[in-house]
Records
---
Amino acid sequence: MASRWRKHGVRLIWWTGALALGVAISLLADATPASVMIVAPLPVLLAFWLARNRRWVLAEGIVACAIGVYMGARAMQPRALAPAIAAVVDSDRRVVAEGWVLSAPEIADDGSRLRFSLERLDGVAARATVALSVASGLPDLLPGDALRVTARLRSVRGLANPGVADSATRARAAGIDLFAGVGASDAIVRLDDSDIGFRAPVFTIVFRWAARVRRDLGRAIDQVVGGGAGVFLHTAVLGERRGNDPRVEDGFRAAGATHVLSVSGLHLAAVALVFFAGLRRALAAIPRLPLWVEPRAAAALIAIPAIGFYTLVTGSAIATVRSALMMGFALMGIAIGRRGGALVAIAAAVLVLLAWSPLVISDISFQLSVISVLALAMLVPRLAPGGKAKVGSLTASTASTDGTDAVAATRFLRSRRWLGGFAAATVAVGLTTAPLVTHYFGEITPAAPLGNLLLVPLVEMIVVPCGLGGAVLGATLGRVWGWPLLTLAGWAARAALAIAEFFRCHAPVWLTRSPNAFETAALSIGFACLLASVRRSASGRGAVGAAAAMLLAVALGSMGVRDLARRWNPNLVVTFLDVGQGDAALVQMPGGATILIDGGGTYDGSFDPGAWVVEPFLRARGITRLDAVVLSHPHPDHMGGLHRILNRFPVSRLWTSGDDGHNPDYLLLLSEARARGIPTPVPVLWEAGGVVIEPLGPFVTNRAGGDFFEGIGVPEGTTVNDASLVLRAGFAGRSVLFTGDIEANGEGEIRGRMDVGQTVASDVLKVPHHGSRTSSSLEFLDAVRPGVAVMSLGWRNRFHFPRPEIVKRYRDRGVRVLRTDLNGAVTITIAPDGVLSATCVRGCR
């Protein structure tokens, strides 16, 4: 019977792995259900042929992989909205939306967010799941509450940039159909039962109860622990984000322990272990109960719903749900006397999550948590020092001489085994997840082993159990009962914050380029093979070590080849990034020199394209330093993302027109540049790699004292838009004109540069001011005579750019119009022979 269970467990692991591989292939290939059905006969025929030859395992794997490909392609397709909802989204008008809350509001970096089920739209029945962002305030709502909000509904449409993850995939994985936003929490109206004609489903009672418990536990923590330690307890114990100091997050990142700032799988494991072990001992201590019920099995059955409820209380993050499912399967095995391996529990948990949403495989926390658990299950037993034989032999040899010495030696060896096992776990998890962290975040934390060794035991063994236990006692029995445990948790939290601050000040964080998906997989598997070769026999070590060397060599070689190809690329490559309603463009010159022109941004600061678009794009391209950063003018949609870039990249110079635009954020940008030692010279003619960068305006003239001076500067009375720094990049007889947000007066000045011998005509024009009616005058277009016009703007932006008459003006002149809202990021390539080509992430139609 046991062998049959093991056989079924191995097949479950095989099926789950093949299914996950199929989903990953589908996402990487951006497959559609139609394309999958076209090629479906090939794997079906192959599986049939393998089955006829009794190769059942391979046949089952191919079938599971094919099913995964179809599941991924199907999940990638946006869900069809009802005609009434689609019409409202297309009209871009404000509507009255009513529904019931799906999840309790969560604090985010840019305000707060919640999900609600749309039930009525302007009084008409309509069904969809909406993610509602609140710029200011935290709504006092619980799951199941009915609400009314007046807002614009936006479809799920991410930003399309090469090498950057699409946020639309993450939204679809969470089941989001629409987005909406309000300025403040008081814009949301909570409805009474008498005001609505719909009710929340019964299952929301559980979520509502969990949210209330979470609120009560938070109040119990606040009664005893305050300040930064209290905020940390809310984060680590309850999964609540309450505006952690950015320096705290920087410290934990430098220590490689950011996972302790959320309720991760490790938190849940610590809580489950303490609960299960304590409950088992308590049941075993009850007289005569072990005669009727096996304490271990009973504790396992009771622990399963407790773990599930704690998962609900802490917000049901992907990593927590995965751990809860794993522990649930493992505890169920204990309860029925079928103790399966860790790999079987992992496979079962992953299978359930993939069945719930195949797109969960694209979630960063899911990937990190699965790889971490696989490393713990497969590598730590091999790396951790053995101790049973040594303890036993040492005890036997010393027992006859001194029993006290034997006990001390046994305790010492057990402590050494525990420390060795923890060190092995830190090394295994750190090495196997480092490529994934580098892929997504472009950074390496060399102090992570030491940081985890200091912080993880402190948080997982003291902060989380004591904080949770004290909060439960304080919420149920009163403050006095929870005070001792919460006080201890507060002390431990302060110690953890002090350690994180030490790492922030002294531990390095290496910012690197990002490996692609193939390189990341090869590096992770290569490091895993390298660790797996430890303590093997000579023959086994040779085979596994050779596989590790080959994988690591291939990955590093691929990264080296890509970097050489970038540096030796003879073309001028200009990429207009899709940053929403704003501007950002990267100029890559032959020889590797790079210029970033603007960084995108939002007026309310709700989205940082520097962190989510520009930096990931640069690191994916292998760019770790910039020769110049250019700010056309100090408006938020051009400047907001540059703060991140100046603080995370070495920059040789910062160019601006000198106009502050009466914007304090511009002065902050300059102070950040000075703090980093970045010079801010007046823009002048600059040549690199055969590319000539020529400033065309705004120019200021000074004839005081008989001296004549003309250079980049802002004439008195010029508006912020017309004071935009205009640059022209020329290469191989072609040119690209970057115009910022100049309007009619600024365009007139650019035309006037022709009178002093400067060339204005360009093959590619970055359309001024996103296609507004105040720009792109007929005289300006006649002077520039572009062949391609690129409009950088947001999808269905609130300014209604571009104006239809402006688009018609370009098309009447035979200019090819490309738009980042429709085409995604637009890449213009100019070869040394002058051949110009354009590519777009969403196609250049």
---
Amino acid sequence: LPVAGAAAAGPREAVRVTVDGVVQGVGFRPFVWRLAGELGLAGSVRNAAGRVEVEAAGQSAALAAFVCRLRTDAPPRALVEHVAIEPLEAVRAVVCLAAPGFSIEKSVTGGAADRLFPPDIATCDECLAEVADPANRRYRYAFTNCTNCGPRATIIDDLPYDRAATTMAAFPMCPACAAEYADPADRRFHAEPIACPACGPRLAYRPTGAAAQEVDDDALAGAVVDLLAGRVVAVKGLGGYHLACDATNEAAVALLRERKRRWAKPFAVMVAGLAEASGLARVGELERDLLTGPARPVVLLEARPDGEPTLAPSVAVGSPRLGVFLPYTPLHHLMLEAVGRPVVLTSGNLSDEPLATDDEDAARRLAGLADAFLSHDREIRARYDDTVTRVVAGRESIVRRGRGYAPEALPLPVPTSLPLLAVGAELKHTFTLAQGARAHVAPHNGDLEDLPTYEAFLAGLGHLGRLLALEPAVVAHDLHPEYLSTKHAVRSFPADRRIAVQHHHAHVASCAAEHGIVEPFIGVAYDGLGMGDDGTFWGGEVLLADLAGFRRVARFARAPMPGGALAVRRPYRMALGYLLGAEDVAGADGARRPRADDDAVRRTWFDRAGLDSRPRDGALDAVVGPDGDLVADFVGRLDPREVETVRTQVRRGLNAPVASSAGRLFDAVAALLGLRDVAEYEAQAAIDLEVAAGDLRAEALPYALDRVGDLLVYDPRPTLAALLEGRARGVGREDLAAAFHECIVEVTAELVADARAASGLDVVCLSGGVFQNRRLATSLLERLAADGFEVFVNRLVPCNDGGISYGQAAVAAARMATAAGQGSQTPAARA
């Protein structure tokens, strides 16, 4: 290729430049070629495994400008982490100096310790314009892409990222595509998924149980007819199958819920563009940027009560928020344009199963869910569910990390000395592979509770490990011995290569690590459940921590969970657990705040012995009203046999483990307020409680803080007593829900203040699934900042258990570094 631009007179030199980061699959080599031509440089560029290598010859000033602009002018989806320069050895320098121009060479497989690759990228405006242009050869082609957009992580088999190492290897290029692919001046130069109607993947449509009947445009038309007729269509996307239906058709949405066995959890809705999203929900500036950005996640927005068009009521039952996303493939754009209305697009699986990706597997597992299939013949190499995100306190906060984000590397503030696998927990499972200062958090996998999800975990681990060329030498895992992730760690690694990480330490460490915090901090971990290092279940904890270790300094009082996991699904059981068996922490060193009077506490506990009948004396009359029927308000709506079973479980300690859980307390309060007795999905009761509270102003409910040994303990019995008294006086559920939220804010502020007094620390990291509660997280951020704390929350990984594996990796790396500093010979010495 001829060199553009005239070289200035003077001596020339030759250098080797290596560029590390996300520089493959993002149009980096064409960018280098154009930049070299502009600056009058000779030489070559090529991909190595995970990096770009350049040999360049020219004037010193031009080379200096070249190196500088590799960083400043890089393609938008590139991430240049490091640029190294060294003189070329003599023989190569002579060749480079004599070269007539600048060339793009074939990739090589070696040469880099770090192997990075980009996530999938939403269709760019240039490609969309071609799809909409009748004169263009890619008109209405559902797989149009270029170096700036299209599938990446979901089709890669190996690195370096070349077509032969992707699932596009099955589609030989036609002459027209081959010419674009070979032309460095074309935006499709080495666009590995390059395709057109003549040579690329094709759509296929078939009714369930039938052979494929239509292809290409006719296939799309068949699916559109089904959607408009109220039927459910399985649509093959980038990282897996979706189930689609008309979001404005109540019968269609109800049918999808029935088949998917997803009775209540809100569905995500895809709309054609930003205007349609703004018609359904309130879209702020940052939310707009997220909706239209290259990742195209599902964004949780505040729904407009009078939104247009009108969605089916069961799309988001009882939720003021709506999950909205925009099309991210040409197929989605074409489908939304043809349907002309919002479409529910939810994961292609039964609830709690892994996302379907393989065509045969999808045909088998989705046959009972979908009326028809809109598929294609390009294989999906890796499973990537859609990312779900939101805005909290003016910044993005990821709820589920998947397509468009994973597996982009996250930093490890303390580099790991050995290749590391962190296997995560159980719910919202992810795993993390780490090497050096980089952690690769795999996409959301589902709840790791059964064989199909476990097999999906193993497949994802094998694939990502191969791409990264990373063979773990150490594993980090949860303390819970029954998690499938823990069992995998125990089976796969010897004891001296395993590092057990306490669940809540992993939570707060995930927050600290993503913010680069390596000094000690105060960690607040509020979630549903996690195994503590004392053998009990934790969930409402304040820790003095750094990445390597922690000391527990405060907690919520314990209460039994009658039926164990059953109490999670039936919040009324958790309420009975608090009423019948809440830990008595009174009297040890005195309360930090006056509790409700003892008589009120006793009265509102239904006299415990008479819980399943009407009050036996007049002591409850002032609380329950003139008819003396508090039973009708809560216990009376329950099956008496169930109440008696729970009472027996609590009294005898039968399958009623105790937990200091903030999440379970939220569940209990939701049940006592009559908001939710049975949860159809995790945290539904707590979500109902947050919705009820809304933005109402309220005074905090009473509470007590007492010392139990070395721990400051929040006693919620006065809180629950006041809650019940308020209900009996006719105070609205919404007001009491708001007052409960303010109580938790006040309690947390006091617990954190006490931790500061004991430690002198003023950095706070908040993590755990309870902080998905927007009202609680926002109020606590404001309150602690006003109290002089520097407060951090998760942004890059979820605060729920989806961030646990990243926290485990950060802890394990820090422990290995500490052990090495102490001269330990085993990486698990600090475990």
